[in-house]
Amino acid sequence: MMKSKYILKLLLLIVIVAGIYACQKETETPKTPLPERTLASAINGKWIIDANSHVSSRSQEAAQLSSIEFFNDSTYLVSISSGEVFAGKYDITDSSEVNISELGTLTDITIEGDTLLFKLSTEAGTILITANKAPEITDSDSTRLLCRNWKLQGTTFSPATFGWSAEYNRNVYLRFYKSGTYLIDVHLQDTLPILHSGDWNWHPTRPGTYTYTWYNYPYYGVVTGNGIITELSTSSLKITDSYYTYPSSNGIDRDTVVVTKTQVFVAAE
């Protein structure tokens, strides 16, 4: 836990130091305050951070907030461009400030259409951030069934689960969100959970198939794939994934060998 906290704080320090020099020294135009709806419902959802709003091009590769997602149960997910994903709890004070554990405080929050503007304050300083609302997955019976927490069964692995299987007493969870977030949550006995976050959406021309994208897959970086759903109910899920094998020592081109595997999941609490 302490290591994760240190990494997050270090990355944010890089972001803020760069942002302080990148932000223009202009007088801000007063923003219209949020309507009377609660702040929690107003910020609920996934917000894609505008990279130009807080990071200079010089430090962009070192650290950059990619997205922040707020949920109804007062939890959040923060994704950083270098691949790290952080989860925790947030709370709202005075109906105008959002305190995010291990991250900082959001103040001067304004929502204009699908744009979220706020100040992020941490121990290193305060910067202005602009974020845009991520479009939700098209609503359907299949979307509602799929968007829940699934626990992987057995020893079969594939890129659909970031290469993880449930062997060696691992607890591996796959979560689909209507925001398009595709999350793997791995628990290795008594260690802290390992999180991998990507994107998913329904395939535009293949019913019952979804596309997924990982942005920091080992050795490859960005990896996309198609998961074919062969069984879906409130209690069970089966996904068939076809993918190319990894490069091997004998020089076989990975684009010539295709492996097909089916993974079984049960609904998790």
Describe the structure.
With 269 residues, this protein is mostly beta strands. The protein folds into 2 domains: 2-133, Lipocalin; 141-267, Lipocalin, CATH 2.40.128.280. 12% of the residues lie in helices and 46% in strands. It is built from 3 helices and 16 strands. An 8-stranded antiparallel barrel has the order 1-2-3-4-5-6-7-8. Strand 6 (104-112) and strand 7 form a beta hairpin. It is globular, with a radius of gyration of 20 Å. The protein starts with a helix and ends with a strand.
Q: Using the coordinates shown, work out and report the CATH topology of the largest domain.
A: Lipocalin
State the separation between the terminal residues, measured CA to CA. 24 Å
Number of domains: 2
Mean pLDDT across all amino acids: 81
* Structural class computed from helices and strand pairing: mainly beta
Oligomeric state: single chain
Tally of contiguous helical segments:
3
Give the CA-based shape: globular
What is the helix/strand order?
HHEEEEEEEEHEEEEEEEE
State the CATH class of the largest domain: Mainly Beta
How many strand elements?
Answer: 16
Rg computed from alpha carbons, rounded to a whole number of angstroms: 20 Å
Percent of sequence in beta strands: over 45%
Order of the strands making up the biggest sheet: 1-2-3-4-5-6-7-8
Fraction of residues in H or I helices: 10-25%
Biggest sheet descriptor: 8 strands, antiparallel, barrel
Low-confidence stretches: 13-27, 55-62
